[in-house]
């Protein structure tokens, strides 16, 4: 069991989450393990979750869990160059975390959301190298007319949005960061300066605002505190 492994810490389950998962740290790396319940006696090792039949008779939580993996697999099939996509996505995710706009539960974007945005840029510029894809990422999404959808392929139905948590205020913050990224990349393309370090500078949250709200959380035991 995971709890018996010395490498595993902060093990906890979130069964009532929108997507049920088990969270823990493995050698200090945070991991979210999704849970899916299938009406099968035996799960074959070569189970293909890309087949729509896998969703038959599945409850909503299981569908959401499976769709996370299904969407990831589909993205890899739709991008023209997987290596360029991966490299660009790593840079954009690093940038988003540094700039404080990487958190789905806080109204920004999570991992799959950033992957979808990067994948669309890879489709628009199939021959571009990662440095250029990063620049085009900021240029395109600075000019994007939100809430127009970002589609990687045609869909048969209305589908569903992966950005339900985004609000008007968090969208304004993200578009401001897109504009900042666009300006810095434009300066680099014009060879005015090497701005890569500046692009990835952390957002100084506690220097950006005049007022702050502090919430203190306490629990009667360690296990309850971990759930927070």
UniProtKB/TrEMBL annotation:
One GO biological process term: mRNA processing
Taxonomy, superkingdom: Eukaryota
Cofactors: Mn(2+); Mg(2+)
Subcellular location per the Swiss-Prot or TrEMBL entry: Nucleus
Single Gene Ontology MF annotation: poly(A) RNA polymerase activity
Keywords noted in UniProt: ATP-binding, Magnesium, Metal-binding, mRNA processing, Nucleotide-binding, Nucleus, Transferase
Family of this protein: Belongs to the poly(A) polymerase family.
Name this protein carries in UniProt: polynucleotide adenylyltransferase
